[in-house]
Amino acid sequence: MKLENEKCSNAFVCAARGIKEAIKTEANLKFDILVAIVIIAFGFIFRINMIEWIVCILAIGVMLFAELMNTAVEAVVDLYTREKNPQAGKAKDISAGAVLVLSINVAVIGLIIFVPKIIDLVTK
After folding, report:
1. 75 φ, ψ (degrees, to nearest 5)
2. Is residue 48 within 8 Å of 86, Cβ to Cβ?
3. CATH number of the domain residue 38 falls in
4. Which of 14, 73, 78, 89 is the most buried (most CB within 10 A)?
5. For residue 43, what are the contacts with CB-CB under 8 A and spacing of at least 6?
């Protein structure tokens, strides 16, 4: 009988299972995926250049990575304790704060790339 926490023999399968679980249970990750889809659509609509595509894809990837890592931190903290614990709360808050900082940066990147293109479209 295989225990739940035993090493997975296929890392890709385990990673895909983790992503699927996170998508199923994390509302913020679902929102981030929706935003990623909108960014990609805007990229095609506004015909962004290669550098802008690279920046957008990196921003999307790093944002999804941060959200998944935050989810993992929360899960590990919850394994440690379900009781009110200042250190557990601190770990969760710091992890969420990291995601917030990155979210702001990604939003600024999106504004820098897309606002001038939207203004050009509106003013023509």
Report:
1. -65, -40
2. no
3. 1.10.287.3610
4. 73
5. 52, 53, 56
Residue 5 lies in a domain: no
Q: What is the pLDDT of residues 1-48, one digit of tens each?
A: 345 556 777 888 999 999 999 999 999 999 999 999 999 999 999 999
pLDDT digits (tens, 9 = 90+) for 56-102: 999 999 999 999 999 999 999 988 887 888 999 999 999 999 999 99
DSSP code of residue 36: H
Residue 4 in domain: no
Number of domains in the chain: 1
Distances (CA, A) of 92 to 50, 54, 77, 88: 37, 31, 7, 6
Q: Are 92 and 47 in contact (CB under 8 A)?
A: no
The pTM is what?
0.86
Instruction: Give the CA-trace dihedral at 21, 15, 103, 52, to 10 degrees.
Output: -130
**Has residue 6 been placed in a domain?**
no
